[in-house]
Design goal:
Elements lengths: L3 H10 L16 H6 L2 E2 L3 H27 L2 E2 L13 E2 L21 H29 L1 H6 L8 H12 L13 H24 L2 H6 L2 H4 L4 H28 L2 H10 L1 E2 L1 H4 L8
Antiparallel strand pairs: 1-4, 2-3
Length: about 280
Amino acid sequence: MQPLHNTASSLAKLSLPPQLRCYPHRVPVAIQVTKSVTVRHSLLVRVAHWLTFLAFIALLVTGIEILISHPRFYWGEVGNVNTQPLFTFHIPSSRDTVPTGYGYVLPDQNGWSRYLHFQAAWLLVLTGAVYLAYLVFSGHLRKHLFPTREQRSIRACTTRISQYLRRNKLADELHTYNVLQRSAYLVVIFVLFPLIIWTGLAMSPAVTTAFPFVSSLLGGRQTARTLHLFITIALVLFLIVHVSMVARSGFRARMRAMITGKAHPAETNLTSREIL
């Protein structure tokens, strides 16, 4: 056994406050737990995240209502009940002039849904513009969204996919995104969202009258409408995967981090680089 005077000497050399020296070695104490709280999301990122979510849900609900008024899709400039559709959703319509094969029509919600759709779209555009400016000027885009040199390979992607399939929990990083997240976010931010805005504008008679090329470059207004649907489906699939991964990696912890901006690794078991 170590002599008492040696033990006292060792304690005197410790940087811990006197009231904490009674704890066994390597046992976390209150002051250490407090210091482990980290900032995961800035205020601007959190506000942009929830505004985008609300705008997207509003666009999705109102878009479904608009689709019900004419559940037929075409390719080209012109499309109506007298032309052959590219494909059709076999659901009742909210207009009796649209042949659906059903003997009844649904309540027509086209008026308010188009108005709210337009307002939610502007909210999404303005929020996206502010967020994009933040990404560029804060360095967040370069530091946290563009894949690192080590991640720019097919092997890095396949390795991460296999880790997801094996349900592994990694402890290599804590405050950044993995290669799959970075790739998915870049596609959503720089491909899907610009296309959903472009195809939406291409369906507007006011816009296409002033700027005909907006729809002509896509192949026509009906082509823009069909592409708008496909892009919406891609965004919905991304949302489903996104929420599923949040739930898998700790729903309460991730939600707390996106609401308060802070996370506690010891409490929330945030042991990987994933920030979903």
